[in-house]
Specification:
alpha/beta, Rossmann fold, Arc Repressor Mutant, subunit A, five-stranded parallel sheet, 11 strands
């Protein structure tokens, strides 16, 4: 698996590269957002570690541009206290974030959790070895390709957006609290901002619902959590 590390701090990049290569990853490096976008455009990247504050092009703009050309998972590297920037990162399409200064073990956990989901083998069925599609009304998911469709047209989702809507559509009517969704979808005891769930739900409504302000399927039960209504 090839990981792109993007940060203008050369010592940090060097340390991440050393540790990730010891874990068996192929690591490429970039030192500004523009170079990161071009590297992703060239192809072959499986995950991006993207710093927020960089010269030439910052992490938010780089994240937005990467999302225009690729669904590659993005983990943002943010300084402590930049809560609004974290939320913006999710709005621009980031899948996760790690707060600086961080422990390399935490970075490894986040990377493994995301890559494990993106590399998961499709569930076999007795017929053709392919997992059946999940469909309700206009919305359809293909677990084999991890693609989402609205009225037959593909809608690009980030890794976490897909995981979230797949969980809810496979369990229609079940109400999940924000804490449940953080722990189940993110795959571990998530230490981040609980608003992460609200941001992802809002993005899913914008992408999948006819009227995001008055959703028909991705609903909230006040005081409890979110659920998918068939």
């Amino acid at each position: 698996m090839r990981i792109l590390v993007v940060d203008d701090e050369e010592k940090l990049v060097k340390g991440l590269k050393f540790n990730l290569e010891n874990d068996g990853y192929d690591v490429s490096c970039a030192y500004d957002g523009a170079a990161a976008v071009e590297t992703v455009r060239e192809g072959g990247i499986d995950l991006v570690l993207l710093d927020l504050m960089m010269p030439i092009m910052d992490g938010l703009e780089a994240c937005r541009r990467i999302r225009e050309i690729s669904k590659v998972p993005i983990i943002m590297l943010t300084a402590k206290g930049e809560d609004n920037d974290k939320i913006l990162g999710f709005e621009y399409g980031a899948d996760d974030y790690v707060v600086k200064p961080f422990n390399i073990a935490e970075v490894r956990v986040r990377i493994r959790a995301i890559l494990r989901r993106t590399a998961a083998q499709p569930t076999e069925t007795a017929d053709d070895g392919m997992a059946p599609r999940v469909a309700f009304g206009r919305i359809e998911l293909d677990p084999n390709t991890r693609n989402a469709f609205v009225e037959g047209s593909e809608v690009p989702l980030t890794v976490k957006e897909y995981d979230l809507i797949e969980l809810m559509m496979k369990n229609p009517g079940r109400v999940y609290s924000r804490e449940n969704l953080l722990n189940v979808v993110w795959g571990y005891e998530y230490p981040g901002d609980i608003r992460t769930v609200d941001v992802h739900i809002r993005r899913l409504r914008m992408k999948l619902e006819v009227d995001p302000a008055n959703p028909e399927h991705i609903l909230r039960k006040w005081g409890v959590g979110y659920y998918f209504k068939p």
